Amino acid sequence: MGSIEPVPRPRQFDEQRVLAAVQAAFWDKGYAGTSLEDLLAASRLGKGSLYGAFGDKKSLFLLVLRKYDEANDRMLRTWLEQADRGIDVIRNFVTGPVRDPDGEQARRGCLLANTAMELSASAAEVAAEARRSYASTTDALTDAIRRAQREGDVAPHLDPDLTARAVLSGQLGLILLGRIGQDPAALSATATALLDGLLPKP
């Protein structure tokens, strides 16, 4: 007779809650600054349960980062599907990270952008994930720009792909300025100038 395979025990925790809590811990402190104790406190799990379910710290972080990126990709595509005009999607994308009047959201930054600055030079997996996610974002922005051109809100002579890359680069610059505590009013004015410069009307 063959051996009987053990039946896996069902997880005794809410996986989505745990991943959301772990994401918040990594987002607040960065990868290097987040200790095992921080992860255990955030997840309310023991080390065996946490690492047994998700692997070691690096594997857990990469999982959280991918889920964060995929959620942002879905959100951007949903904006594009539901927006009255394509130009609104681009404006929301650029101004979103700096819209908070007290600057708290801006100082927290973006998990992917924060991670890319912290780890891309030393972790090939992070650099690859950043390239994948930013390529997806660029594709969505390109579609939004093409739509805005069809709707008469953006000059038709612009190259949609190159303009999308410029919009993404500008947004990342705003995120960096927000992280270092730039004045929220100045950030908002910069975002407006960025949009006016990159997306001239016909």
Automatic annotation (TrEMBL):
Database matches in Gene3D superfamilies: Homeodomain-like, Tetracycline Repressor, domain 2
Record's keyword annotation contains Transcription: yes
SUPFAM superfamilies per record: Homeodomain-like, Tetracyclin repressor-like, C-terminal domain
Pfam families: TetR_C_13, TetR_N
Keyword vocabulary terms for this entry: DNA-binding, Transcription, Transcription regulation
DNA-binding region: 35-54
InterPro entries found in the cross-reference section: DNA-bd_HTH_TetR-type_CS (IPR023772), Homeodomain-like_sf (IPR009057), HTH_TetR (IPR001647), Tet_transcr_reg_TetR-rel_C_sf (IPR036271), TetR_C (IPR011075)
Keyword Calcium: no
HTH tetR-type domain residues: 12-72
Name of the molecule in the record: TetR family transcriptional regulator
